[in-house]
Specification:
460 residues, mainly alpha, two-stranded antiparallel sheet, 18 helices, elongated, disordered C terminus
Length: 460
């Protein structure tokens, strides 16, 4: 319940801000309607053409809480660091309206309430088709947009109308706008990380780090375009909007194509991973389950998005070396094979992965998954532990998950990394035991962990 408090607080704050702004705007009337309409259309168009998922260096898969129906940072095509803002045109238009002090040389009189009201209405209108198709977590996106534009408007509009910026002109004024936008983007990163943490239960620190890493990327383009739009409209009027929107519009369309390419690439990797299942070397769904549970363990250990992507691809293809075997391993269970045989299969798998174009990092994880854990990269440690757990618990009875964890703990002397085994226990306990960690003497938590282990095996 505690992890849900930030989510409820942020959603409540956004709802109150939007509702209060609407009431104030209805009472005072809409000032400079053509200007409000122009910026509203810009924001709505930006929201309308945004992809169904935020973009990053590579796509990631659904996480373990996805089956519970939570809209999350990673469950519905959400991706990693690099290009976090999927609607840069809408963001730039909203922030430039919040920083608009003049229109064609004439001072404006709209305040914070009108800015929030126009942006919220336009963002909601642009999200209607997405809501109708059920694409992505629209609510949290609107929360971020409302809070970000509200923060910028509160910082700028009251001070501007009181003459606080009368002495600022030229480069100094432009730098002031940029500074406000950078501060807004940083605050938005904190809000985004808090929303993701509340929805998924993933550690807040790594989520915030991934958000902050995106600021120099698309975040800088949003800041620069928002500031330039506000300055240009102040001088030449609304004709500046289409002129300065074109570059960001083309960028946004390119992001849509990029998202489609990355999604296709991941589907290709997933199809290759199923080769061992189709050939009868591994049980159906084994690679998918290892990938999903492995990502949850990686999240618990605080891996960044780029490493989580490598982990996902390696987990999907960790058994592909078995295709080179003359005689299949019974049930594809490699965890109990002699160490030399495990290494041989891992090296064969790495050689195959290198030919798929998945990347040398993915191949290295596959190759080193059977090495002693002190010599392994973190992703290889996770793949080895999760694969062993999935194999040990696959056909077990009610006490199977606990028995499998105890076997893994007994193997932490050389085969399995202790920190990864404990992270696995936390992930299993958090999902099955209401967020409580499993431990000796905790009968209720042990029962929850047992149920959870069977859920991972049957549903992934």
């Amino acid at each position: 319940m505690t992890s849900r408090l930030p989510l409820l607080a942020l959603r409540s704050a956004a709802a109150l801000l939007a509702a209060g702004s609407l009431l104030v705007t209805l009472a005072d009337g809409l000032d400079a309607r053509p200007t409000a309409l122009a910026f509203g259309v810009l924001v709505a168009v930006g929201e309308l053409i945004r992809p169904g998922a935020r973009l990053g260096p590579d796509p990631t898969t659904a996480h373990p809480t996805a089956s519970h129906g939570t809209a999350s940072h990673g469950a519905q095509g959400t991706t990693g660091s690099g290009l976090r803002e999927a609607a840069p045109l809408g963001a730039a238009g909203a922030l430039s309206y919040a920083l608009l002090g003049e229109h064609a040389g004439q001072p404006t009189h709209h305040g914070v309430a009108q800015v929030v009201c126009v942006v919220a209405a336009a963002a909601l209108l642009g999200s209607v088709p997405r809501l109708a198709r059920g694409q992505g977590p629209v609510l949290d996106h609107l929360v971020r947009r409302i809070l970000a534009v509200g923060f910028t408007a509160v910082c700028f509009q009251p001070l501007y109308h009181r003459g606080f910026f009368d002495g600022w002109s030229g480069p100094a004024y432009a730098l002031l706008l940029l500074a406000l936008l950078v501060l807004t983007v940083l605050c938005d990163a904190v809000v985004a990380a808090a929303l993701a943490h509340s929805a998924t239960g993933w550690p807040f620190g790594p989520l915030l780090r991934d958000e902050l890493r995106a600021v120099p990327g698309i975040g800088s383009a949003v800041c620069a375009t928002g500031a330039v739009m506000a300055l240009a409209v102040a001088v030449v009027g609304l004709w500046a909007l289409p002129v300065f929107s074109v570059p960001l519009l083309l960028t946004q369309l390119s992001l849509r194509r990029y998202a489609a390419v990355r999604a296709t690439y991941r589907q290709t990797i997933a199809s290759l991973a199923r080769a061992t299942e189709i050939a009868g070397y591994t049980p159906a769904g084994h690679a998918r389950r290892v990938a999903a549970l492995g990502q949850a363990v990686g999240r618990d250990l605080g891996l960044p998005e780029a490493e989580l992507t490598v982990l996902e691809y390696a987990a999907l293809m960790h058994d592909i070396g078995q295709l080179s075997l003359v005689d299949p391993v019974p049930a594809g269970a490699t965890a109990d094979l002699p160490a030399a045989e495990q290494r041989r299969i891992a090296l064969l798998g790495g050689a195959v992965v290198r030919r798929t174009g998945a990347g040398p990092q993915v191949a290295a994880v596959v190759e080193r998954q059977a090495d002693p854990y002190p010599e392994q990269p973190v992703a290889a440690r996770i793949v080895r532990v999760v694969n062993a757990y999935e194999e040990k618990v696959r056909d077990a009875g009610p006490g199977g998950p606990l028995t499998a964890l105890e076997e893994l703990r007994l193997g932490t002397g050389g085969a399995y990394a202790p920190e990864v085994v404990e992270a696995l226990a936390r992930v299993l306990g958090n999902r099955g035991g209401g967020g409580q960690r499993p431990g000796p003497g905790a009968g209720g938590r042990r029962a929850g962990l047992s149920d959870l282990g069977r859920g991972w095996v049957t549903h992934g």
